[in-house]
Amino acid sequence: MRRYDLHKPSVQELVMKIRREFNKANLDISRLEVVNYGGTINLYGFVVRAKGDKSQESVRDRFNRVVEIIRRMPGVKDVVSYVRIRET
């Protein structure tokens, strides 16, 4: 484990890491709100395929993969999703 992974990140750092993971997965999160409430991550809004993305993997599969990555981040207790996933 890397040394910088051992400290508990601030709320802003954690939210930025989460948004970065969604961007890495090539998802459009312009209408997604990420809220950290005592280590519980709440996701609200819409997630769609990024413009120009031609991959065959579904948006739901990528979203679920990112949620699993978020659950393993230090400082995260749980992830609650109120997200509408659009495949278009």
Describe this structure in words.
The protein is of the alpha+beta class and 88 residues long. It has one domain: 2-Layer Sandwich (Histidine-containing Protein, Chain: A), CATH 3.30.1340. 31% of the residues lie in helices and 30% in strands. It contains two helices and four strands; from the N terminus they run αβββαβ. It has helices at 11-24, 59-71, and strands at 27-28, 32-37, 40-49, 78-85. Strands 1, 2, 3 and 4 form a four-stranded mixed beta sheet that branches. The radius of gyration is 13 Å and the shape is elongated. It starts with 10 loop residues before the first helix and ends with a strand. The model has no long low-confidence stretch (mean pLDDT 89).
Q: Radius of gyration over alpha carbons?
A: 13 Å
Q: How many individual domains?
A: 1
CATH class bucket: Alpha Beta
Tally of DSSP helical segments: 2
Sheet with the most strands, sense and barrel status: 4 strands, mixed
Kindly name the structural category.
alpha+beta
